[in-house]
Specification:
By secondary structure, the chain is α/β, with parallel strands linked by helices. Helix content is 31%, strand content 21%. The chain has a seven-stranded mixed beta sheet, sandwiched between helices. A five-stranded antiparallel beta sheet has the order 5-6-2-1-7. Strands 20-19-18-21-32 form a five-stranded parallel beta sheet.
């Protein structure tokens, strides 16, 4: 990074930067230029050296704010700030010799860079005339600096408000007529240098010009800065920037300088728009800043891999928004004054605030806002059912007069998670360690509680039964929905926070919860083991070897690489026709994995209609596009097997919808009509039951009638002091984000338990709300409650 040690404004558009760059300053000479880049994603721009100080190790540039980058330099960088890249010195220095009478002409952008050459020619023993031109008096700068080295200084203003009225070329013509120079050096805009060249051409006075042409690298690689000089093609970055002006093809050069004019105009307009939005939303705090009628009615579509192509591989289906897509969608958020979308987010992300940062291109700021509530935006942006949570609460979609789709919050969250540059996480520095916490399971709830507790200053150890970290994210969700590198990246962030992971540790077998809190010395335990145990129907034929649970099937493929058998050791046998029972997201995963394994016929059997299917609408659509056959309103009654016990088909009964059940879904009513489906494999995707391994080994732990752990919905506290639980082991099968929400609630309650000296049980919502992590302003006095149960 390079620091701006001095900034000076000469006018609304012209300003000076003095930059600390000792290596550049050591080698700089008059006529050199540098390449500057502000930040990642910014362009490289050439800037002529206006001055240098070898002792201070600085380079001075005078910049005129004309395009997007120079406007950004003017508006967003102040003295003391740093920027990314500063390369130089580049080009060839001006050949300074004792020529006699030298006239140096600077106009507009050329005034500052002509100064070091003027000084060098004077110090070489020449008689120096300086001609500097400005549009008006208010823009004049450095007159005293020029006067110090000029035998004669002529200051011109276009409007006659100061010095000599008119252009520098008129002053140059007068000097040539009354005191013919031996050399003229002209630096400024191309039209001005061209005019100077034509002014000196009749008298034959040698005239050098400095060509600040469009370039990308500045080192001679790209050829963008090529210019015709005489009969040769020359490159301004390595052969120049100073050339004999009488040999330069200015007409050709000026045409080349216009080749990105449209793009430059677009970039400037975009920058102006961002500045307006930043002023409205950040400086003025304006809300409801857009009218519904000005919004596109439909969300920007997510780019997707072609259905036929994707059905043959495990590459990610949803390709993610481009920058243009994300910004267009962010513009659909009206920044409402009462953002109900936040209430729809189980972890409470401040959605409008992260979108505000995205609108002004502050990607890292957007990520920081999300990370206040969720350290896993790339995961949640992919797998959470936003359409039934935050997006269902979006006020844009609630407008009754103008039907509109909700803002695609999930897609924006994913975009920020994938593209922002998060600083490397480090363990927090706290006055004291809050305590030691064991977490059972590394699924969504476990990872969420680990993240918050690590930030609170706890020593956190996560125990995972499998050989990889991630729980259901690893074994349950296929890589075409959640790439494994995304999981790995999020887990690595937790490791950087100081979280320890121990795999191959089955809590309830390897260790028990009482063992963790006894011999192993943990102060609290969070159980996020997931539900786990698969559910079956109890129909004839379930004993067959080709009948899988979704858990087994997906684990064999997602975790163990069964799709690569025999090159990897874990097999999965599917045959030529598969039936998946169920229509939730897990069923969709099984169906689509089956298709990717090359099975010709893949069918879904579901006893209700498509409208009642629990799967996300997007997952249903993707499955249909990939060639899955759906048998809605059909219920399995028997799995047909042959004499050897192998699956040969399925008998299904047609259904109709009756009255709604206790959950509001219409009950399927059987009809006296049956269908035979040929198949050689069946996969059950009917949800899960509570896994008893942890609960049976934890005395005093209250369970409900289904075997799930009973936990306070506000704090996740269980009946055992110091033991908390969340996720599917409490709620039954649910979503990733709901499990994470439980983890975050538990983390705060665990913090309160530890901060209170483990003296109060059960922990209540009031205790959790009063908790302030170590290193932040002092917590409120803990709320008194009943003593810890024995």
């Amino acid at each position: 990074m390079y620091k701006i040690i001095r900034r000076e404004a000469f006018s609304d558009t012209t300003f000076l930067w003095e930059v600390s760059a000792p290596d550049v300053a050591r080698s700089a000479e008059p006529g050199h230029f540098v390449m500057l880049r502000l930040h990642d994603g910014s362009e490289r721009i050439p800037l002529t050296v206006a001055d240098f100080d070898r002792e201070r190790g600085t380079i001075t540039m005078v910049i005129q704010a004309l395009g997007k980058t120079t406007l950004e330099m003017r508006d967003h960088y102040k003295e003391g700030d740093s920027f990314a890249d500063f390369v130089g010195p580049l080009g060839l220095p001006q050949h300074v010799s004792r020529a006699g009478h030298v006239v140096l002409v600077g106009g507009g952008l050329g005034v500052a860079p002509v100064y070091p050459q003027l000084r060098a020619f004077k110090e070489a023993g020449n008689r120096v005339t300086g001609i500097i031109g400005f549009r008006n008096k208010d823009l004049v700068f450095w007159e005293d600096k020029f006067a110090k080295y000029c035998d004669n200084l002529i200051v011109c203003t276009d409007d006659g408000s100061y010095g000599r009225a008119g252009f520098v070329t008129a002053a140059l013509a007068d000097v040539i007529e009354r005191d013919r120079p031996d050399l003229v050096v002209a630096i400024g805009p191309l039209p001005m240098m061209n005019a100077c060249v034509e002014t000196t051409r009749p008298s034959g006075v040698k005239t050098m010009v400095s060509l600040n042409a469009i370039m990308v690298d500045g080192t001679g690689m790209c050829g963008s800065c090529r210019v015709t000089v005489g009969d040769e093609i020359r490159f301004a970055c390595v052969d120049g920037p100073d050339f004999d002006g009488h040999q330069v093809d200015f007409k050709e050069l000026m045409l080349r300088q216009k080749r990105f004019k449209g793009e430059e105009s677009k970039a400037s307009d975009d920058y102006a728009h961002v500045c307006r939005v930043e002023k409205q939303l950040f400086d003025e705090g304006k809300r409801n800043y857009k009218k519904y009628k000005d919004l596109p009615p439909h969300a920007v579509k997510m780019p997707e891999r072609d259905a036929l192509e994707r059905s043959r591989n495990f590459k990610e289906v949803n390709l993610g928004y481009s920058m243009a897509d994300a910004l267009a969608e962010a513009e659909r958020c009206i920044q409402c004054s009462k953002p109900t979308c936040i209430e729809g987010c189980p972890v409470g992300i401040d959605i409008p605030r992260f979108i505000r940062h995205l609108l002004v291109r502050d990607m890292d700021g957007a990520l920081a806002v999300i990370n206040e509530s969720n350290l896993f935006p790339s995961v949640c942006g992919r797998v959470c059912p936003q359409e039934s949570q935050c997006e269902a609460q979006c006020v844009v979609a609630k407008n009754k007069k103008l039907p509109m789709e909700a803002v695609a919050i999930g897609r924006l969250e994913r975009f920020v998670g994938d593209n922002a540059h998060a600083p490397k996480a480090t363990p927090p520095v706290v006055p004291r360690q809050l305590g030691r916490v064991a977490i059972v399971g590394s699924g969504p709830s476990g990872l969420a509680v680990a993240a918050d507790l690590a930030k609170f200053g706890c020593a956190v150890t996560v125990f995972e039964a499998l050989h990889v970290v991630g729980g259901v994210l690893q074994y349950g969700i296929p890589s075409f929905r959640l790439p494994r590198e995304i999981i790995g990246r999020e887990v690595d962030n937790l490791k950087d926070l100081g979280v320890r992971f121990e795999t191959n540790k089955v809590i309830g077998k390897t260790f028990s919860v009482p063992h963790l809190m006894g011999e192993m010395g943990f102060d609290a335990v969070f159980v996020g083991a997931g539900a786990g145990a698969p559910a079956f129907l109890g129909i004839p034929g379930e004993f067959a070897g080709q009948v899988y649970s979704a858990n087994e099937f997906l684990t064999r493929v997602n975790l163990m690489g069964g799709d690569k058998f025999p090159y990897l050791d874990t097999p999965v046998t599917l045959g030529k026709s598969v039936v998946v029972i169920g229509a939730g997201n897990t069923a969709m995963d099984c169906l689509r994995v089956g298709k990717r394994l090359g099975i010709p016929t893949v069918r879904c059997v579901y006893r209700r209609s498509e409208a009642e299917a629990p799967a996300r609408i997007e997952e249903l659509r993707h499955a249909k596009e990939e060639g899955i056959d759906f048998f809605f309103l059909h219920a399995p009654v028997e799995i047909r097997v042959d004499a050897d016990g192998n699956v040969r088909g399925m008998k299904v009964q047609k259904m109709m919808l009756g009255e709604p059940d206790e959950k509001g879904r219409r009950k399927p009513v059987p009809l006296d009509e049956f269908v035979e489906l040929e198949c050689d494999t069946v996969i059950y995707a009917l949800g899960t039951k509570a896994n008893p391994i942890v609960t049976k080994s934890t005395p005093g732990l209250d369970l409900n009638k289904w075997g799930y752990i009973v936990a306070d919905p506000a704090t996740q506290a269980t009946s055992v002091p110091g033991v908390f639980a969340g996720g599917d082991i409490v709620t039954g099968a649910a979503t990733v984000i709901l499990a994470m929400g439980a983890g975050r609630r538990a983390a705060r309650a665990i913090g309160a338990w530890l901060a209170g000296g483990k003296s109060v049980w059960p922990i209540t919502q009031e205790h959790a709300d009063a908790f302030v992590p170590p290193g932040t302003p002092a917590a409120k006095t803990p709320v008194e409650s009943s003593e810890v149960s024995s």
